[in-house]
Specification:
Largest sheet: none
Structural class: mainly alpha
Distance between the termini: 26 Å
Number of strands: 0
Length: 210
């Protein structure tokens, strides 16, 4: 019962936040639709590892650091937002590849798993979510097994949701329908990253609540 009283409120907030489109969602969709199922699933794995990383940091006291050093929160948001905007600009400026060829510009040529991890790592919304929701749910008396379970559930939730997204977006009907629009998918993803990054920078001054 004690475990449920901790898990239900936390994941009642986390699951809807996970499902709502953000940079992680855009990254998985873009990898799946431009590079196929394998790349989409590798990006999913990278995103899930990133979420588990932030969940771990939050349970180890990240929120206390962010609350005490608000300038650090500002710096993380600005740098993260700037990276997402830069990534978006790279995608917008990428030259279209011929049909049947893999794109050759730098953003796509990199490792899909690393791409997913970095996108999550530079997503300040993930930092704030875990720092404000997860850390507040545990106390000094919370057992280690329960915190480990929370981290595991974060990773599994990310894997399940984004695997569904990746498999759907890279399915034969979807790929056939959009086979001639790959470059436009890159551009839409680029514009989305720029908008998300800009909004994150605009919200950078908002403090993290204790």
């Amino acid at each position: 019962m004690e475990a449920l009283s901790v898990l239900l409120p936390v994941f009642g907030v986390f699951i809807p936040a996970l499902i709502l489109p953000g940079p992680d969602f855009v990254g998985v969709v873009r990898s799946s639709m431009t590079r196929g199922t394998r790349a989409g699933l590798l990006t999913t794995l990278g995103v899930s590892i990133g979420l588990g990383f932030y969940a771990t940091l939050s349970l180890l006291g990240l929120s206390a650091v962010l609350v005490k050093f608000q300038w650090l929160t500002w710096a993380v948001r600005v740098l993260g937002g700037a990276y997402l905007a830069w990534l978006g600009i790279r995608l917008l400026l990428a030259r279209p590849a011929a049909i049947g060829q893999q794109p050759t510009h730098g953003v796509v040529r990199g490792n899909a798993l690393l791409f997913g991890f970095v996108v999550t790592l530079t997503n300040p919304k993930a930092i704030v979510l875990f720092a404000s929701v997860f850390a507040d749910s545990v106390t000094a008396s919370t057992p280690a097994w329960l915190m480990a379970l929370m981290i595991a559930l974060v990773v599994v939730s990310g894997l399940v949701w984004y695997s569904i997204v990746a498999l759907f977006m890279s399915s034969a009907p979807v790929m056939k329908r959009f086979q001639h629009a790959r470059h436009w998918i890159e551009r839409v993803a680029g514009a989305s990253f720029i908008l998300i990054g800009g909004r994150i920078i605009a919200d950078a001054r908002n403090p993290v609540s204790p």
